[in-house]
Amino acid sequence: xxxxxxxxxxxxxxxxxxxxxxxxxxxxxxxxxxxxxxxxxxxxxxxxxxxxxxxxxxxxxxxxxxxxxxxxxxxxxxxxxxxxxxxxxxxxxxxxxxxxxxxxxxxxxxxxxxxxxxxxxxxxxxx
Length: 127
Fold this sequence. Notes:
globular
C-alpha cells in the first residue's frame, strides 16, 4: 500500500477540526474533513486515507458505529484509527477500541496538537 500521508478527520467541533486541518496541512498531509459520521464514512470509502482521527460523539452516525461499519470493509479493516473524545475512557470505549483495533484513544482535555501529530505520524510509519 502506498502511503500518501492522507488523513481523514471526523469531528463536529469546527474550531478543533480547523486547528487540526491547519496543523496537518502545514506538515504536508492531504486532509479530508467530515463533520458527521455519515459524511466521514463516505469520504473514508471514497478516498481511502492513510489514517483516521475520529470523534465518538458526532451527528448522524456516532464514531463507534462508523468504526464498526468501516471494519467490515477490506480496506477499512486495516486503516489505523485514532479516537479523539471528550468522554472518559469507560468500559464501553475500552471494549470498542479493542474490538475494532483502535491504535490510540485520546481524551481531548489531555492532549495538545503536537502530540496528535506525533501519534498520527507514528501509526502511518508503522502501517
